Amino acid sequence: MAQASSIEWTEATWNPVTGCTKISPGCQHCYAERMAKRLQAMCQRRYRNGFTLTVQPDVLDVPLRWRRPRMIFVNSMSDLFHQDVPASYIARCFDVMREASRHTFQVLTKRPERAAELADQLPWPKNIWLGTSVETARYANRIHFLQRIPASIRFLSLEPLLGPLPQLPLDDIHWVIVGGESGPDARPMNPKWVFEIRDRCREHRVPFFFKQWGGVQKCRAGRLLDGREWDEMPTVGGTCRAERSVA
């Protein structure tokens, strides 16, 4: 439930919740659903319910046991702000993140409206970052909910990017990640969409991280954009650094 990660923009994952439900086109080929069903077939105890939402309270204290500071993606296999996760349990997760101040926690949700509703009830120390996923312009309203939340770093995960995002709103946004869809039946990403977002980030001095082109065999497509990798990361002060965090 907590392990090293191959995701380019983080170092480890922590899953106090597993399972989710689909709410928009970006969920169509959900990697977490595929993995959960595979683990269920392997009789992994934590995935006995497959991809049905399940809280995992016995792993809440795992980050407290990690001595070395690291970047931690929270709920890579779920969404902490899913409507079926009790507010009291979300608060317990935030209490752990606040106590484990040596780590940086990256919380990513497709439900920022619930995060905004609960924001006043939760602590927001500098080590808790909050992001939302946006796949097409139809879901750009998620950004407006995110902008209302007092996280020290607010970020966008534009992955899988399924359409153009012209005039992407970047006020009070500190980091943008872009990536294409990968895996079986991956939908294509137009390079023009990526360049438009990259250029807008540069214009607004927002760190830009290009995760991948995606595709059925994403390793073949690689990560190069304009002949280089874009691994910009934010710092709590809102400035940019060119390298990914190294613990």
Q: What descriptors fit this protein?
A:
247 residues; alpha/beta; 2 domains; 8-stranded mixed β-sheet; two-stranded antiparallel sheet; 24% helix; 19% strand; globular; disordered C terminus
How would you describe what is shown here?
The longest helix has 14 residues, at 191-204. The protein folds into two domains: 1-21 and 31-133, no CATH class; 141-247, no CATH class. The strands form three sheets. Strands 1-2-5-6-7-8-9-10 form an eight-stranded mixed sheet. Strands 3-4 form a two-stranded antiparallel ribbon. A two-stranded antiparallel ribbon has the order 11-12. By secondary structure, the chain is of the alpha/beta class. Helix content is 24%, strand content 19%.
In what order do the strands lie side by side in the largest sheet?
1-2-5-6-7-8-9-10
N to C succession of SSEs: EEEHEHEHEHEHEEHEHEE
Helix content: 10-25%
Radius of gyration: 17 Å
Shape summary: globular
Instruction: Supply the helix-strand structural class.
Output: alpha/beta
Average pLDDT taken over every residue: 93
Name the beta content range.
Answer: 15-25%
Q: Biggest sheet, open or closed, and with what strands and sense?
A: 8 strands, mixed
- Beta strand count: 12
Total domains, how many?
A: 2
Number of helices: 7
End-to-end CA span: 20 Å
Question: Stretches where pLDDT falls below 50 for ≥5 residues?
Answer: 238-247
